[in-house]
Amino acid sequence: MYTFNYDILWGYRWLFLNGTLVTIGLTIGIIVLGLLLGLIAGLAQLSRFAVLRWVSWLYIELFRCTPLLVQLLWFYYALPILVGIQIDAVTASVLTLSLYGGSFYAEVIRGGVVSIEPGQTEAGLALGMTPARVMRRIVLPQAVKRMIPPLMNQSIIQFKNTSLVSVVAVPDLLYQGQVAATDTFRPLEVYSIVALIYFVVLVPLTAVVKRAERKLQVSH
Amino acid sequence: MNTPQTAPKIEVAALKKQFGDHVVLRDINLNIDPGAVVALIGPSGSGKSTLLRCLNLLVVPNGGRIRIGADSFDFDGNKPLPSPKAQAKFRSNAGMVFQHFNLFPHMTVLQNVMEGPISAKNMHKGEAEAIARRLLAKVGLADKADAFPNRLSGGQKQRVAIARALAMEPEVMLFDEATSALDPELVSEVLSVMRDLAAEGMTMIIVTHEIAFARDVADRVVFMRDGVIVEEGPAREVIDNPRQEATRSFLSHFHTRN
């Protein structure tokens, strides 16, 4: 019978904390950047200019339909060869995860906008508002309410996706766990702790999503 | 006597619209005098709603010309439309009331009515609020200013929608089956607001199935079928003594109600 020994990991507490903070910081960064990309790509999908629709379609499908790990390795190892400049691991990671998340956010944002009855747009236009004003004042405020639960879901997935960056040696939670595991020869304890930390951070967030969904149902 | 004729408020000339191969408006010519109330009647699919929506550019015609007040647009299937700004300015001069109200659910009644002046005219909030409160009082809903639309009955919603359209101070008002989605007992409160507007001299085009109301309030009735104007004339004349067989047959469905 295996005897668990968690005491030995106490000496690595700062390493875990550090890794957790890197993971959280990374997540915040890729959510903000991803939402920005998603908003641009999502609205471009609805543009009256075919070029914008086509470019955003290509971006969305490219990043939705290739594995994230492959994208990460491509941005870290292949892109520098292509453009001839060195890209550090953090930049490559943030870039990849933001683009990947953005492609999913884009679909959520497009879907949210499309779900608003055309009568709302017509009423705004009929008042003499420009299409851009109608989008900002009438459609988006209503659509955002519907987008919030799926956007939060996608963000939770993004939080977990950050663990992939350990492959390119970004010192996130999983990477620090690997360091501790090889140091102590205690992978069972280490990876259990790592999993627990992800879990403890995310469970409250899922509760927030649930509550947002409930609130949304009440208001409709 | 040669009294100079006042120019029509609305002029529609050779208007055409088709969706793919399906021709919805064939060749519509219509002049409407200032202050006139015109009822547009006809079976569903006759093109009357499309015509109304063309007048507000919610549907873009394939050919012809539309003038409302001082603004006019020529349509040519091959030419791109004027800028969104020019379209918006054109639309702001024609208030539109929809069958399904289309109130903004995320705004209060007051904010709904203020939205046009603020967003399309860049009016100051205080000024817009004064206009909105005056119009809400006019449609009998001053006490509902702070309610959200989902708290209102259908008739109240439609009266707010009328106030919202009036807030832009349009030269003409377009009603697209404004009472068709209402429970029967709520129809009259909306019709009464429309009647008041007509009495004040507002130029109005009303797409409606309320034949009795059309006969009573409209100056002229235009009967459409299959994308053409079949018959038009003074309201009572057309409704009581239609000249065309198509008009007669359409109106026969309503005679029990008169």
From TrEMBL, chain A:
Keywords: Amino-acid transport, Cell membrane, Membrane, Transmembrane, Transmembrane helix, Transport
SUPFAM superfamilies (alphabetical): MetI-like
Topology class, membrane: Multi-pass membrane protein
Cellular location(s): Cell inner membrane; Cell membrane
Residue stretches spanning the membrane: 20-44, 190-209
Ranges for domain ABC transmembrane type-1: 20-209
InterPro entries recorded: AA_ABC_transptr_permease_3TM, ArtM/GltK/GlnP/TcyL/YhdX-like, MetI-like, MetI-like_sf
NCBIfam families with a match to the protein in the record: HEQRo_perm_3TM
PANTHER family: GLUTAMINE TRANSPORT SYSTEM PERMEASE PROTEIN GLNP, MEMBRANE COMPONENT OF AMINO ACID ABC TRANSPORTER
Protein family (similarity comment): Belongs to the binding-protein-dependent transport system permease family. HisMQ subfamily.
The protein's role, per its UniProt record: Part of the binding-protein-dependent transport system for glutamine; probably responsible for the translocation of the substrate across the membrane.
Protein name per UniProt: Polar amino acid transport system permease protein
Organism of origin: Azospirillum rugosum
